[in-house]
User: Fold this.
Amino acid sequence: MQQLENSLRRLRTDYVDLYWLHNFEPTTPVEETLRTLDDLVAAGKIHYVGFSDVPAWRTAEAATVAEFRGWAPVVGLQLEYSPLERSSEGELIPLARAKGMGVLPWSPLKSGFLPAKYSSARTGPVDTTRTALVGAPSESDYVVIDALNDIAGEVGASPDAVALNRVAHRPGITSTLVGARRLAQLEANLEAFSVTLTDAQRARLDAVSAPALDFPAENNRTLAPMLAFAGATVDGRRTVVSTLLQATPTRYWHAPPARPERAPC
Assistant:
């Protein structure tokens, strides 16, 4: 509460529209945190509550507790998301979509890895202040970077704009945070609004940047629908019949032996 009051004084305002709870703090009971935030909403100091960089399991717990208690809900999630960091598609983004939360990605250019300054064919030092903090792209990163550069050349836009455009149009994304130190960087970011990608280009970029998600994400995407719906179309999504269900019936069920006929008395 003291930190919020100090922020309001520095900002010269009476309230904050969206108050982000930054980072995961495992020691304080979630009920205590949520009750404090609800008190601040009731007092008019903040209008809405968002979580930033909090694990999906704790975010789901908080959302459930707030709903049960009638406290201010969690309306948005802030998380790292870019063509080079899509692992939040496993838990956090599906949680947000299921609970009606907005998703606001940070670092959509992966700490400056995605602008045209990087390429597998380009060597030498790169003009970025983040190199000392985040290192350099990996081999797998360059596969995505090169595909992004190729698509940018096809549509006549900067790689920055293509990357931001793809992030903004991914399922569940509400808005995107951008950062720029120079006017040219800001202009490159704003160019994302005018970029149009074909279905083939989007599919190509999605394929090379597909993340490895924690279990059971892949199981739920492929095997579970086959077993649950067995070829039916549910919510517009067509499924196929699992080979496990296509096995001969005798593998799972055996007819009882016929009763011998009894001789008449």
